[in-house]
């Protein structure tokens, strides 16, 4: 009985101890190795493993680091894998072969045996624990009783797995990466856009830009004044967001994908795209993000401000872009296609910028090309005609040689000078005494312009100084410069007036299209001839020429050329009639019903005209003409236009069309004159029968052109026109 009671007590105590051991808390002090309390343990042994995943890493203490919540493949090495056990992971570190039954196990999965010593498993580890250890299930037999048991595989470093947790949820992490990319692109673009806008350019934009540009420039200018502070802020902020983005991207992925993704995103989205945009629209982008810039300036204040102060101290004040004349000129030339500036405007600006570097000798008119008059000249019709022909408003006057300029004549000084008075030129110059301005040939145009602006004169005499070693310095006049020359250099154009014959004083190029100048030399000799042949002054002849040229259509240049008409006006076509009271018939220039073949223009005096059956009478004075219909008949003669031009040219030298030797004799007496009035001849038999009478009632001077003279003028004009057509165009050649 004692033996049985003792045996029963031992069995009870044994069972109680085993149960208490299985129910004890999972602490190393309370657990014992199963091998000490079990009769036999059928459990696979894991001696090592390898994580086959590209995101897995090995830490410095030789344990694996794997990403959380991602499936990984584990290759196990050990014994007894043919039992196809399960594995689980616990966060409790125990010694090898410790009991894991009461421990919390996660990611339990059954392994797949490749061989008895190699197996593989696929698991997904959550991020609830930092470090995990492997437990393997199997069968344990104790006192003949078999039951399932989990066996700890140890806590050595090579048997430990570290789970790398995500910093935050994936949607939040992706959102932050996108935000960092946007900020990176913004700072990169602002670094180029804002720093490229210097203070001078912002000042220009705020003054003369569009309304939007003015508003943008005023918003950016306070920030841009602190250039180094702004630069440090943008760079620090850019580096900060790039670093944050790299960390987030590396946590989201790993390995080559993280490197490539980070590089491409920063380069393309963070650098290339924003810089290409801000290089063109930096002003607008900078103004619309100015408050964000203020925020990061405050955020990076502890680092940005000290460095910026050091840079300000070392580098000095920021001046900005400054353009000299040459650079500004080239800048305008290069950008003329984009800044909406016309080429003429570019030339004007270019000329104004080069204004102070151009010397007088480069733009002056050489002395040999200057129209000048001698001091002893007489202001007769010939001289006045030459002045009018040249068309200059200011004429230098010389004495002796041309280099000795002693006075200046203004064209307006001749307004009240009568050529018939033949006043000496020196009398006019001594009366007005216009001041002479002298400049040296190496003086720049700005100095000359200041002289002209004083109002003394718009023409300056250019002198050159000659330094001889054996004598005193001497001055010599080499040309003149006018206000027009200075303005042409400023405008960079050649101002062509009606009198210019050269397009450029420098190249001496002849002007192709020169306005035809009236040559009055044919009238100059009229008053110098014998009064028995000519009874009018040159001025009166010239006035008659202007009248018939503009008021009598038959003398239009379409029919009679100006050259031929001037030659006609120089012929013996001027007459003077003194009325004879005893012989009234001789006083008539035209009589009603009597044919006439001539044209008459009253120059001086008075005539009485009687018209029609009603015998209307009125008096006519100078510059009234009669008999224009006879000239129209000559023009209308068809045979004249049908004549062969070659035959006309063949008789060109015949006296009948030689206007310089027209055989028009002045009547010896008034009786002969009247008979000439009443007679008419001509190859075309051109005449008209007037329905009016013209009677001289006062001493009258008139011009008389017969149909034969007009016919010869028409022929000569035709010959001249044909000759002009056959001339080669030397200018085009």
Keywords:
733 residues, elongated, single chain, transmembrane, alpha+beta, 20% strand, four-stranded antiparallel sheet, eight-stranded mixed sheet, 5 domains, 41% helix, ion transport, membrane, cNMP-bd_dom, Immunoglobulin-like
Account of the 3D structure:
With about 725 residues, the protein is of the alpha+beta class. The chain has five domains: about 30-165, Sandwich (Immunoglobulin-like); about 170-315, no CATH class; about 325-355, no CATH class; about 360-490, CBS-domain, CATH 3.10.580.10; about 525-725, Jelly Rolls (Sandwich), CATH 2.60.120. Helix content is about 40%, strand content about 20%. The strands form seven sheets. Strands 1, 3, 4, 6, 7, 10, 11 and 12 form an eight-stranded mixed sheet that branches. Helix 10 runs antiparallel to helix 11 and helix 19 packs antiparallel against helix 24 (about 705-725). The longest helix is centred in the middle third of the chain and has 33 residues, at about 255-290. Residues about 15-40, about 640 and about 645-685 have low confidence and may be disordered. This is Metal transporter CNNM4-like protein. Belongs to the ACDP family.
